């Protein structure tokens, strides 16, 4: 059972000037606050390979941010913004939808929604080299905010259209328009699978040099894919955080992920809260398989709090259940949908350490950090503020080893 928690207990004062609105010129020049079993030290992110525990397994999220903001102009001059959230149906693989030709249906957040009439078709012309492509947007299901995109000629992929005309969706708290530079700086250097509408920002500090030195220090690495959704910025509005409706995100696991986790003898370090949520969800997907539950790869925000500790399997048994499922179904990957909600009282099953930025007051991410390291989160954030750390997506980093 999730215990009662008051939102006020997870607030802190974040001065506006501490929000990093632009990235540093060099990714790995950011600061790194190291928290190791209660002791705080201030370092540079370039030192991370030397500061990780020996024999660590570092897990990255290789999702790639898509230019998810599309603007259409009505004949009256009014601009309608379509912010892509997920393909329809919601369980469709995002990377598959990005390869659509001719048409694609997406659930969207819609700016200036009241101006867009039910039967109105929005059109936009896009130059593709020598030829012009016409994109049309119309309601697919108005109540569900689903929009159907069609384009002619139809031989270009939806991904190509987005890259030609879409805008990178920067976090709202940056309070600025995206620049051309953000197309590169708001992606991790290892991003590969398109589908996120927000970057897994803990990974923005990594450079090819840092990644190379991880290997030199015997640190193993692996990659999974969680497509970060706009819900990651959704504020908690209820005084009791249990009442918050947690967003759901699509995550893709490979057989290799399971095999590495089951055979690796050292600590597992998540790069970012999205990797942490993915890894912890993997345990609960295994529990659902062991319990023979329907839709075993769908996880809501309450499930992890339903069981007495003595009724839960060990990590190895739960992860082995997922690997067995892949073997029995002859699959190399499995798609999950997770709404896991890690708040104080949650016991972490897979992750031993976390690399993460500094998060917004009163956010689900602060709750996750507090769940992982306890009340010391306040000491860490106070220390970061006193030492001029830069906060939020383009800000500095921390290594948390409770």
UniProtKB/TrEMBL annotation:
Entry keyword set: Cytoplasm, Isomerase, Queuosine biosynthesis, S-adenosyl-L-methionine, Transferase
Keyword Glycosyltransferase on entry: no
Family the entry assigns: Belongs to the QueA family.
Quaternary structure, from the entry: Monomer.
The protein's role, per its UniProt record: Transfers and isomerizes the ribose moiety from AdoMet to the 7-aminomethyl group of 7-deazaguanine (preQ1-tRNA) to give epoxyqueuosine (oQ-tRNA).
PANTHER family named in the record: S-ADENOSYLMETHIONINE:TRNA RIBOSYLTRANSFERASE-ISOMERASE (PTHR30307)
Record protein name field: S-adenosylmethionine:tRNA ribosyltransferase-isomerase
Organism: Larkinella knui
Gene: queA
